Amino acid sequence: MPFAQNWVEELVAEWLQLEGYLVEVGLPVSVAKAGGRYAADIVGARIKKKGNILDVFHIECGQLSGGQQSVNSLQKKFSPSNCANIENYFKQRLGFAGMNVNYHKIYVASFWSKPTMQGARNLGINVRPLPDFIRKEVMQTIQRWKANPPQQPRTIGRHITLPESCWLLQLIDYLRNKSLLK
């Protein structure tokens, strides 16, 4: 599996993994006309048994500060053909033959301008400023997971540790436990 290109992508990948998604980093999805290829930052999928639904998250990360140029770039990243390629990839990989698919387009912005953010939202992309994503998604997932871990801990006491592979989530959990995060 390729490595995330930056810590925000790694954080998103760890979050999806803890949520129980099959996660791919840098998944190639299309080829450019002049050569080269486009790869999605982070994608994850799982099959929801109730309703037999393929739940796909397509998450791009970066800065939304370039005005219309940033919006145009997002339009390419989340193009219908790229989204269809990602959906088909997971249908094949998970052996999903159903028709029900929930496809979530999310952009986690480490820096943003309000007009550019609105332009992205007008494209149907759920733009999440990084602080909100950490507070509302990541920290809530950590708390939910620790309240009901997949395996019951054998340790004495109440300290439940996140999986070793989730080192950024472990850092956030540590900072929260030590009251260094609000």
Account of the protein in words:
This protein is of the alpha/beta class. Helix content is 41%, strand content 27%. Strands 1-2-3-4-5 form a five-stranded mixed sheet, sandwiched between helices. β2 and β3 form a beta hairpin. α1 runs parallel beside α5 and α2 runs parallel beside α4. The protein is globular, with a radius of gyration of 17 Å.
Give a brief description:
About 40% of the residues lie in helices and about 25% in strands. With about 180 residues, it is of the alpha/beta class.
Could you name the key traits of this structure?
alpha/beta, globular, five-stranded mixed β-sheet, 182 residues
Strand content: 25-35%
* Structural class by helix and strand composition: alpha/beta
Shape: globular
Query: What gap, in angstroms, lies between the N and C termini?
Result: 33 Å
How many β-strand runs?
5
The overall pLDDT average reads 92
What is the H/E order? Answer: HEEEHHEHEHH
Uncertain residue segments: none
Helix content: 40-55%
Radius of gyration: 17 Å
* Structure annotation, total helices: 6
By oligomeric state, this entry counts as single chain
Which strands sit side by side, in order, in the main sheet? 1-2-3-4-5
Biggest sheet character: 5 strands, mixed
Q: Secondary-structure map with pairings?
A:
Elements: H1 7-18, E1 22-31, E2 37-48, E3 53-64, H2 68-77, H3 80-94, E4 101-112, H4 114-122, E5 126-129, H5 130-147, H6 167-177
Helix pairs in contact: 1-5, 2-4
